[in-house]
Specification:
about 240 residues; about 25% helix; 6 helices; three-stranded antiparallel beta sheet; globular
Length: about 240
Amino acid sequence: MTTASRRDFAPDVVPIKDAATVILVRDRLSQPQVLMGKRGSRAAFMPSKFVFPGGAVDAGDALVPLAGRVGPVCASRLAEAAAPDRVHALQAAAVREVWEESGLLLGAPGAWQGEVPGDWADFSAREHLPCTRNFRYVFRAITPLGAPRRFDARFFLVDASAVVGDPDDFSLASDELSQLQWIDLEQACGLDLPLITEVVLGEVADIITLEGPPACVPCFRNDDEQLAILRRRARP
């Protein structure tokens, strides 16, 4: 499938989909590194850009059992802009996207009950339930008008200690992201990044050594004024 041109969609009617993005970090108190991968050159959204694992919420995510959930502060903040079932689905989607795009499992041992959604079959076969107990909700961004796909993305910061198994083993990853790598936080901005990813990296650098949820969760809707703020924040 070729990349969509601007004539292939009407910018004012492109639906906004809920999405979850995960910023996995290790060695955060010494020399922090974040996990990133490169999207394909023919991807309809952010082609050839380095990004964090993430993607849209699927229908089955609201039905998936969680072994642990985000803390009460993060849950309350997620609920401010999402229906109650969406708060659950966003957390499940975050775990699923990391699993699909990197092959890293964020979960706790547990047995699945009832029917397993199709896109969770491989995860459930590992006899673990998704777990977001150590997730911190840190950022929100809405894709601007004019994009072929639009997302209301919630960003979660997660320490790599939550990964079950070897955090350097990407052998089970799908082919959606290539060049998966742990990269020094300070060096990540040297990659070919979407603007919003640059901004998020700046925000993460400010809070990475802190414990618990951040003092606030920035939310950018990408209107003209906010785009100017984003550019100043990302490229001083």
